[in-house]
Amino acid sequence: MAKWPVLARNDHAATWLQAWEDLGRAPGTLDAYARGLAEYLALCEREAVDPLSAGRAHVGVFVRELTSRPHRRGANVVSIESGAGLANATIQQRLVPVRLFYDFLIKEGLRESNPVGRRRYTPGRRGSYQERGLVPRFSKLPWIPTERQWLDLLEVARREPVRNRVMLALAYDAALRREELCSLRTDDLDPAHRTLRVRAETTKNRLERVEPYSAPTGVLLANYLTHRTTVSRARGPLFLSESRRNHGQPLSLWTWSKVVRRLALAAGVERLSTHTTRHLCLTDLARMGWELHAIASFAGHRHIDTTLQYIHLSGRDLAEKLKSGMDHIHAWRVQMLAGPDTSQAGAGGCSR
């Protein structure tokens, strides 16, 4: 709350955010909610509008401000899918807490309607009517590095301390999110079976799962565990800081992000992030022919709609359909060229 003083000035906003915290929402989610609502309430203050009585037009002013806001790296940086400095996903993210806040006000009896609204379908006699959201939603596939970019990254990473190398290996092997990786504890490991436990409280959707890791990662992990005893012999958080200021303390999310960013810049792969290894792992599983539900279980996805993006990114289904279709067409064309006898024999397979 201290980070966003405008929330403290609004009793309803403070109560709403505290309710989400009491429900156990992840710190990152709370921070995103707080930021989005704080920006909206700050605009209401500038426009001298009471949020309790604000209408769709006032929310529209907020949307206009978001869609015209320049990128933090300069006004010349424009996101293609939004046409503005902010990416479409970022604009949608800013609107979510505003919509949820008005849902809360409605339940509290302080409002009768939500000025943000939702994208939804309404059945009718002449088909379904689609109510559009305030901002068109674009769904982009995750970015993954090319083979050359990945090799460049590994070339840089192999000169890193063993802690950073094993973290990168586990992040890929088990498709771990940043918080899942940094929250691993020594008792989450089962070296005998080369598996690790991802505890429910560290996951995005509160689903616990057990993930395997490869033999090369097992070797790295054994080396790191030996090295870890020189930092601390206490059981607990697996990855520890080795800096002078925080020596022996659990490695923070932000420190790991800085490590990955440094590696990305050194390898010339600027788009690499802490989530890229997860995207790459799940795409590789799709390329290897894993079934959709198996990938969803491995990733800890509650809904397979999220998993489908990796099937699309791998191009597996389209490649198989294209191959089977082209084989049939090629066979028919060869039969036509070979002569009338063979073309009659294959006429049943493809008619003009």
Structural class, from helix and strand content?
A: mainly alpha
Number of domains: 3
Count all strands and give the number. Answer: 5
- Computed over alpha carbons, the radius of gyration is 26 Å
User: What profile does the largest beta sheet have?
Assistant: 3 strands, antiparallel
CATH domain class name of the largest domain: Mainly Alpha
How far the N terminus sits from the C terminus, by CA atoms, comes to 70 Å
Order of helices and strands: HHHHHEEHHHEEEHHHHHHH
Helix content range: 40-55%
> What is the helix tally?
15
- Arithmetic mean pLDDT: 83
**In which order are the strands of the major sheet placed?**
3-4-5
The CATH homologous superfamily of the largest domain is termed: Intergrase catalytic core
Using the 3D structure, state the CATH architecture of the largest domain: Orthogonal Bundle
CATH fold name of the largest domain: hpI Integrase, Chain A
Beta strand %: 5-15%
Keywords: DNA recombination, DNA-binding
Pfam family, one: Phage_integrase
Protein name: Site-specific integrase
Domain Core-binding (CB): 11-106
